[in-house]
Amino acid sequence: MKQIYTITAFAENRPGVLYRIADLFLRRKVNIESLTVSEIEHTGQSRFTILVHAEPLLVEKLVKQLYRIIEITKVIDSLDQSLIIKEIALIKITAKNLERRREIEQLVHLANGKIAAVNQSYLVVEKTGTEEEIDSLHELLKPFGIKEFVRSGRIVVFK
User: Fold this and answer.
1) Ranges of H-type helices in the chain
2) 3-78 belongs to which homologous superfamily?
3) Fewer beta carbons within 10 angstroms: which end of the chain, N or C?
4) What is the CATH T-level fold of the domain 84-158, as seen in this structure?
5) Domain ACT: where (predicted)?
6) Burial 4-34 (b: 16+ CB within 10 A, else e)
């Protein structure tokens, strides 16, 4: 049975590592639902956080094959209950009049979001939280006319 897995891979920060990781998933015909890459506290090291929806046996094979990539130093596959998970989203909303802005600001405040930017014709909302919290705020703001919506992808720390 397919489950949602977060695969965390630590690698030397060198050109081509991302390509080799993506190619491995492509060859196995596994869709990467979310991918976040950043440098970590160790100089010259990067952390790849990869979200996949796959069978446990396939994830086990992917982990073993990731270790074959020379630059990979450590790989951990996890289910959601062993992780603290967050994303960040930016939502640009049409808001040309004061009444509409106030209504949007109230919703954003109730959802623990922030107003990141204001213009004469729009607001940019910033929301950090779980995937469900971001989805919920997105749904609440749809009736106001979302011009743009972008989210970071999953970042995690282990419990």
Assistant:
1) 17-27, 56-66, 98-110, 131-141
2) ACT domain (3.30.70.260)
3) N
4) Alpha-Beta Plaits (3.30.70)
5) 6-81
6) ebbbbbbbebeeebeebbeeebeeeebeeeb
